[in-house]
Specification:
Length: 282
């Protein structure tokens, strides 16, 4: 069986479980379950702390895992990203009291508090900055107020927590993060079971991004219509019973669907419909 590590809690847990469910995999019914077997799909899921997943995968005890890119890099584990999943997006940034720090160069001689010591140490070394790093587990915003550090480095999603603590972000993002699928560095990239798993997740990502659009148009307007809905390779075009009309079907980006429907209507297309895509293979 394919052995997969899945986040057991936090912002990664719910979206990961939802994506796996959409991909056709059985998921746990209770949060206390730490392991389940999906015999139909020949997969065994292990529910672990997100911070630990890269370590388990790097050890070779588990084949692949879902975790955050930030957690993967911070762990320093011998594992690599093989597929971004598009959820739990965030940026990792420095923050300080307004007016005290303007950029990375001002960090020299300062103390930086963070829960991601590996990322911060690597970033400081990359820029040749001599600063101290203090490791804290969570709630790093209070480190400045309590005098533990002059600067913090943390994941920033909306910035609300920083503003509430009287802090502001400093400089450019250290890195951007999202949920990713990882595997042990150097493992066989052509493993059929892993490839099937990745295809399923990629199918979910495409299904979430596109809708299927169907419409009728006159033959003389077909080239204009196809230019609006080129599809992935090419749209499907079928003749209608009424001479001079054709039916067209194509996948279009869901975010652009309403605009495309308006444009199609303007060139004379009618019976324009969109339907959700629940699964696909490209």
């Amino acid at each position: 069986m394919l052995r997969i590590a899945v986040p057991n809690k936090g912002s990664l847990s719910g979206p990961a479980a939802e994506m796996l469910h959409e991909a056709g995999y059985q998921q746990r019914r209770e949060s206390k379950e730490l392991r389940i077997v999906d015999p139909v799909n020949e997969v065994e899921f292990f529910y672990l702390r997100p911070r630990d997943i890269a370590i388990y995968v790097a050890s070779g005890q588990l084949d692949i895992g879902i975790t955050g890119r930030d957690l993967l890099i911070d762990s320093g584990a011998d594992a690599e990203e093989i597929l971004p999943l598009g959820f739990a997006r965030s940026t990792f940034r420095y923050a300080a009291k307004p007016g005290t720090i303007t950029g990375p160069a001002d960090l020299a001689g300062k103390t930086v508090a963070t829960s991601y010591e590996g990322i911060v140490a690597a970033h400081l070394a990359e820029h040749g900055i001599d600063a101290s790093v203090v490791h804290l587990d969570g709630a790093v915003e209070t480190a400045i107020q309590l005098g533990v550090a002059q600067v913090i480095a943390d994941v920033v999603e909306t910035g609300t927590s920083l503003r509430n603590a009287g802090l502001e972000v400093v400089g450019e993002p250290i890195m951007t993060s999202e949920a990713v699928v990882i595997r042990r560095t150097g493992t066989d990239g052509e493993d059929p079971k892993v490839q099937q798993f990745l295809r399923r997740l990629q199918g979910v990502l495409v299904a979430r991004t596109y809708v299927m659009m169907d419409y009728d148009c006159r033959v003389e307007q077909l080239e204009k219509a196809v230019a609006l809905t080129p599809g992935l390779e090419s749209p499907t075009v079928s003749p209608l019973h009424n001479e001079g009309w054709v039916a067209v079907r194509a996948m279009v980006p869901s975010k652009e669907a309403q605009r495309i429907m308006d444009d199609l209507y303007d060139i004379g297309a009618r019976a324009i419909l969109t339907t959700a895509i629940h699964a696909c293979r490209l």
